[in-house]
Amino acid sequence: MTTLTTQNPIAVAAPPAAAWAANTWIAVSRAGAALQAWGLHRKERAELIGRESEANRLRHVAQGFMSSDPHFAADLFAAADRHERTD
């Protein structure tokens, strides 16, 4: 004959601070994700502004070549446009 002993576990309530800790963790995680997204947006915007200012400086240089070498100036203008649109 075989004997089998089983036990019924007692239900244990979660500590009161557990829900607060979980909610706080979720809030901190969401805030961190939002800050990271904001930082990436700032970085992309800074790079875009940097490309725009570099392209404008190149256009200014190209304007100086318009009277002496218009073909070279046109190439510089085209390069400035490409640089500005580079992702």
Care to give the gist of this entry?
The protein has helices at about 15-65, 70-85. It is mainly α and about 90 residues long.
List the helices and strands and how they pair.
Layout: H1 16-65, H2 70-85
Plain-language structure description:
- This protein is mainly α.
- Helix content is 76%, strand content 0%.
- It has two helices and no strands.
- The chain has helices at residues 16-65, 70-85.
- The mean pLDDT is 88.
Distance between the termini: 78 Å
Low-confidence stretches: none
What is the string of helix and strand elements? HH
- Helix/strand structural class: mainly alpha
* Strand residue percentage: under 5%
- Biggest pleated-sheet summary: none
The total beta strand count reads 0
Helix content: over 70%
> Count the helices. How many?
2
- Rounded Rg: 32 Å
Mean pLDDT rating = 88
Globally, the shape reads rod-shaped
Keywords summarizing the entry:
mainly alpha, 87 residues
